[in-house]
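Thread: quick sanity check before group meeting

JM: Hey all, I'm pulling together slides for Thursday and realized we never actually wrote out the predicted structure for the chain we discussed last week. Dropping the sequence here so it's in one place. If anyone has concerns about the input, flag it before I start.
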Amino acid sequence: MELFITKLFEQPAFYISTVASFAGSICVHEYCHAFVAHHLGDDTAKEGGFMTLNPLKVMGWMSIATLLIFGFSWGAVPVKREDPSRLRRSAISLAGPLSNLALLGIVALFLKGGVCCCSICGRWRIHLLLSLVPDMRSLCQCHSVSFQHPSNSSPGRLGHH
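JM (edit): ok, ran it. Output follows.
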């Protein structure tokens, strides 16, 4: 079995971007749990100093070392488990995964899509991952602005027709 840390020497850009994205997304995920808990009356995480994006606090040194060597990690923030409100517990639990979905959407927007303004009606359109499915190009049209598939001359850029 090859250790993840060997990627640092074989593919340094991949290694650094993976470590940064894992650590960043874990910190945002845990911060969102703490943020929602605090706003719903549970100050446990805030009082413990866990309302931070600092990976040393949220992930801990063991998780960071595991990430650097093996390529997986975890994070945690303390919250009150005895809260009788099922709705509050659910909101706190969902805050982290919803933050991951939001991060996915933001990254997808920057990597595979874009934002354009129609030259006729002036409406702003957000284009996500449509470059992966050629038959969906028609969904991405707004008057004179359409999506060009990567198989065309322009690699996944919006073009005016």
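AS: nice. The first helix runs from residue 7 to 10. The longest strand covers residues 114-117.
JM: adding both to the slides.
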